[in-house]
UniProtKB/TrEMBL annotation:
This is Fe-S cluster assembly ATP-binding protein. InterPro entries: AAA+_ATPase, ABC_transporter-like_ATP-bd, FeS-cluster_ATPase_SufC, P-loop_NTPase. The keyword Ribonucleoprotein does not apply. Pfam families: ABC_tran. It comes from Brooklawnia cerclae. PANTHER family: ABC TRANSPORTER I FAMILY MEMBER 6, CHLOROPLASTIC. Residues 4-249 form the ABC transporter domain.
Length: 253
């Protein structure tokens, strides 16, 4: 099972002038095997949603719940949430100087599975995954994300997804900063993960471009801290034509 259930979620971001409410009653359920696209304009709170689910310390959940297969995540540490099966690909992946991709992923996998991958076979698995994402083998020994281009960081996030194999993947603007070939390669990586079965995907984006390659089962429009409309693929096509204008007008009215 890989069911992520978000119920009436409210969250604040920590700002210099105190907490600011960003999430205003998010309801969203991702069931096993589903691929949900969350689409919304800049500043609508999409990253806040991703960080709140993952437990980033700058975000405080003030009410509501997030469960993964029935386990309440909001009370857990970032590590415990990962252990429960949650994965977040951040909009701006973090550089970790001095830690190679191979070692970082081996440590993460050991922590998640409770067993360390075999030293002898692990580099082969990493190499194979890098190849699937069309990344140079040298990335295995480079410090994770350090000096990576924007696109390389995004591909690297999918390498992590591929190797760590979490239950549920929250992918925050995994398509931003990618050229058209890279969008396809990243999308294929998401599809491989999804098709492996027993996974759920929450794909946050504000462009429909990646949805040419990743077929969403559900599409949500996210404006002003909550979901304002839900539909299928046709909703993304509609947004491509009409944009977010009418939703924004409704918020301002
Ligand atoms: P999105 O990912 O949809 O572009 P974000 O979740 O990044 O939106 O941001 C939502 C809102 O929260 C924005 O208005 C943003 O300016 C605000 N915000 C986020 N972090 C901070 C912060 N540290 N201080 C003040 N405002 C913030
Ligand atoms: Mg943004
Ligand atoms: Mg964002």
């Amino acid at each position: 099972m890989a069911d992520l259930v978000i119920k009436d979620l409210y969250a604040d971001v920590e700002t210099e002038s105190g907490p600011k409410q960003i999430l205003k009653g998010v309801d969203l359920t991702v069931r096993t095997g589903e691929v949900h696209a969350i689409m919304g304009p800049n500043g609508s709170g999409k990253s806040t949603l991703a960080y709140s689910i993952a437990g980033h310390p700058k975000y405080t959940i003030t009410s509501g719940s997030v469960t993964l297969d029935g386990v309440e995540l909001t009370e857990l540490s970032v590590d415990q949430r990962a252990k429960a099966g949650l994965f977040l690909a951040m909009q701006y992946p973090v550089e970790v100087p001095g830690v190679s991709t191979t070692n970082f992923l081996r440590t993460a996998k050991a922590a998640l599975d409770g067993v360390a991958p075999k030293v002898r076979t692990w580099p082969k698995e990493v190499a194979a995954s890098l190849e699937r994402l069309d990344m140079d083998p040298s990335f295995a020994t480079r410090s994770i994300n350090e000096g990576f281009s924007g696109g390389e960081k995004k591909r690297g996030e999918i390498v992590q997804l591929d190797l760590l194999d979490p239950k549920v993947a929250v992918l925050d603007e995994i398509d931003s900063g990618l050229d058209i070939d890279a969008v396809r390669i990243v999308a294929e990586g998401i599809n491989r993960y999804s098709e492996r079965g027993n996974h759920g995907v929450l794909l946050i984006t504000h462009y429909t471009r990646i949805l040419r390659y990743v077929e969403p089962t559900h599409v949500h429009v996210f404006v002003d801290g909550h979901v304002v409309e839900e539909g299928g693929r046709e909703l993304a096509d509609e947004l491509e034509v009409s944009g977010y204008d009418r939703y924004l007008k409704a918020v301002r009215a």
